[in-house]
# Entry
Amino acid sequence: MKKHGAATGLSQGLHVLKVSGQNVAGLWEPLSLYLPLVMMGFLAVGTYWLVRNTPAAYEAEAARPVSHEVDYFMRRATVKTFDEAGRLKTEIYGAEARHFADTETLEIDQARMRSTGPDGRLTTATANRALSNDAGSEVQLIGNAVVVREPMQSPDGNWLPRLEFTGEFLHVFMNEERVKSHLPVVLKRGSDEFSGDTFAYDNLDQVADLKGRVKGVLVPRAKAGSAPPPQSSR
# Structure
């Protein structure tokens, strides 16, 4: 009787376990369908928490305003510019040159400049100090400024006379072939001489504009086509 009762109890227990296992399996199947979604949800929440709580590797520096300070300098400096074909356009020499990043300009002491125009005419300039943009297309000559365009024979055989501009300030635009000043300037064209309180010269239009107290001295010109008269050295 005891053996029979024990066998019966064991059989009932196995039956209960079998039924429970079937129930668990039945519950696991629908849960397994949603498990990837649940895991992705936990992963998203964890990533968000990490982003919010992880300190940044570095803080981006606030853009500092560029101050008017020298970022580099050169002694016995030479600055050259070239045209699109690689031909030398302008050379600027100086005892010392200082570059300013905020204005993109080059300040040159004891400046000397040589420039060759498209027609081959040579222009030279000197000044105590020069201020040039980075491209070398615009130069301000300050203190004892002198710009000279050398004489040249034109294709028709006539001579273009020597031009000389002198003053305490001359603003030269290389590409436009212009010179101007808000201060008094003396203009010499061959043997002729003019002066004025302000000055503007456009080589392309062959026009000189002197304003204020304008004075001039005209000298009879040599015969057309003859060589230019000798120029006195400065």
